[in-house]
Amino acid sequence: MDIEDFGGGPSAEAEVLVVTTDDVPGRRVARVVGEVFGLTVRSRNLGSQIGSGIKSMFGGELRGLSKTLAETRAQAVERLIEQARARGANAVLAMRYEVSTADFGTEVCAYGTAVVLVDADS
What we know:
The protein is an alpha+beta fold. It is 30% helix and 38% strand. The chain is built from two helices and four strands; from the N terminus they run E-E-H-H-E-E. The chain has a four-stranded mixed sheet with strand order 1-3-4-2. A hairpin with a 2-residue loop joins strand 3 and strand 4. The longest helix is centred in the middle third of the chain and has 24 residues. It is elongated, with a radius of gyration of 17 Å. The termini are far apart. This is UPF0145 protein GCM10009757_27340.
């Protein structure tokens, strides 16, 4: 598996900038659009659960589950970006993740504040 399998965040071609900070150097907030979020729920795969159960007895990273979580987070961010774009924003500030697990699977929510950014000189 490649390191990209475990990465995160939107692609470089994304039309909406997503940052975990409250501001962006050289840019100012022209308009606050409001809260946006992307939510996804993934069910647990029986095969990976059995494999991870066995591996957990011996220690080490559960790479299959790590990859699934990275994919789940990426999907949540994609949905966050779609919502921001649909509401006319070009950036999401203070993006965070919330993750919860239950017997049926894992829920990941990416959320933040959608804004319209402009150059600071404008």
